[in-house]
Design a protein that fits this description.
The protein is of the alpha/beta class. The chain is 41% helix and 13% strand. It contains 14 helices and twelve strands. Helix 2 (64-76) crosses helix 4, helix 3 (78-89) packs antiparallel against helix 5 (130-142) and helix 8 (231-244) packs across helix 12. The longest helix has 20 residues, at 95-114. The two termini are 13 Å apart.
């Protein structure tokens, strides 16, 4: 089965879990090619995914292929092109959105034109944003079905556009109950919505043995520096710990629009000597910090604009490593952190309770050990990448196979069944 997997840029440093999933899908036998919608810019590229370079259908802001595609579809498929334009025109009253949608349409046309003879059978997209919109355009341009995996409850387009996207999808995947309910709330057909948890490879994140020997103990946090991540709350909690005389070192990994504000807050609170903001790091560098840290904190909040987190992949990675985690009662975090069983949950936007939770884990190595063991067990059971890919294969390939044989993880699908086109 040949799948075109749409991504915003390649290789995206902040979405390496998508690249790891593509790699695993190819490992079990699916023929996946990667379609970026625009060139990488602003953020540094992810390191360690050079093996995927040959799968990428290159992207530029504008190109000769875009012009060829525009001419091709204008002359050969004008009705399909008009159908796409009608979707974009729904945002005509929001000029910025409309301009962005027109660019996504041009990028989609380029991908459709360049891959029109490659036998694409299915289009995949992650996030209910530009990738999902491009998948809808490609359905019209290439006449192939598409699926979307949704990780957050944020819709970046008008309600009518979101409804068009989800209703046109053959498969909709939610990684949490929160995102599942969100999809249903915007009119997604219930029989097309499937709950498949995001996952990490157990081999890539082996269980650590023993506890960090660093002194002072390391409080680790990671994620994009944006309001919904709540890192300003973590800094305030660090100030509380500092007032109590608690020794610690807080390491914050990531970058984003909040970096300057967080830096100013850190300085104002007198935390420059105990809080480090390291910016973007590669996956390999982040993984090293999981094994050095004493505990991991994800202080997600509801942003002033109403945005919430989904289920941050860094939580799953930390749990897989056996690192105890403190999260908040927001978004999809309570679906993985069970308070008192495999971690600690505190109210969102509440520095003192967060500081109390951190203090408890710093004082209780036995509790850190228990939470680390239980966290690893949970990931092995419910958030394993290999199991996720097996479930995805069952969805994407099930209707294509002429027999009832299902591939096992690690077994090539192409070796187990004959293929037929999507009905």
């Amino acid at each position: 089965m040949k799948i075109l997997h749409l991504i915003s840029t390649f290789p995206p440093l902040t979405e390496t879990f998508v690249l790891r999933e593509i790699r695993q899908l190819r490992k079990v036998g699916l023929d996946v090619i990667i379609g970026p919608l625009r060139p990488l810019h602003r953020t540094p590229p992810a390191i360690g995914f050079e093996d995927l370079n040959s799968l990428v259908r290159g992207a530029g802001w504008f190109s000769v292929d875009m012009l060829k595609a525009l001419l091709f579809f204008s002359l050969r498929k004008p009705h399909q092109l008009v159908e796409c334009l009608k979707i974009a025109l729904r945002s005509l009253d929001h000029p910025q959105h409309f301009a962005k949608m027109l660019y996504v349409l041009l990028s989609s046309m380029r991908l459709a034109y360049c891959s029109r003879n490659e036998g694409i059978e299915f289009v995949r997209a992650d996030f209910l944003h530009t990738q999902a919109l491009a998948a809808r355009f490609l359905k019209s341009l290439l006449g192939v079905p598409y699926g979307i995996t949704v990780y957050t409850v944020v819709g970046h387009y008008k309600r009518t556009v979101l409804e068009e996207i989800v209703n046109g999808a053959a498969v909709l995947i939610a990684d949490t109950l929160q995102t599942r309910e969100f999809l249903l709330s915007i009119g997604a057909p219930q029989d097309r919505v499937h709950l498949i948890r995001n996952g990490v490879s157990m081999d890539e994140f082996p269980m650590r043995y023993g506890q960090s020997a660093d002194s002072p103990p390391i409080i680790l946090a990671a994620g994009s520096l944006i309001p919904k991540k709540g890192f300003h709350v973590l800094l305030s909690a660090c100030a509380v710990l500092r007032e109590r005389g608690t020794p610690f070192r807080c390491v914050l990994i990531g970058d984003g629009c909040e970096r300057a504000r967080l830096g100013s807050q850190k300085k104002a609170l007198g935390l420059d000597d105990c809080v480090e903001m390291l910016g973007y790091l590669s996956l390999a560098e982040l993984r090293e910090w999981y094994y050095r840290a004493t505990l991991f904190v994800m202080p997600s909040v509801i942003s002033p604009t109403g945005e919430t987190d989904g289920l941050p992949t860094v939580i799953i990675e930390a749990l897989a490593c056996g690192l105890p985690v403190i999260g908040t009662h927001t978004a999809g975090i309570p679906e993985v952190i069970q308070h008192g069983v495999n971690g600690i949950l505190v109210p969102a936007d509440a520095p003192k309770p967060l500081a109390d939770g951190i203090q408890m884990l710093l004082d209780r190595p036995d509790l850190r050990q228990k939470f680390g063991t239980e966290g690893r067990r949970l990931v092995e059971r419910d958030f394993c990448l290999e199991r996720k890919v097996e479930a995805l294969c069952d969805l994407f390939v099930g209707d294509l196979m002429s027999t009832t044989v299902r591939p096992r993880v690690g077994e090539s699908i192409a070796d187990t069944a004959q293929w037929s086109r999507i009905r």
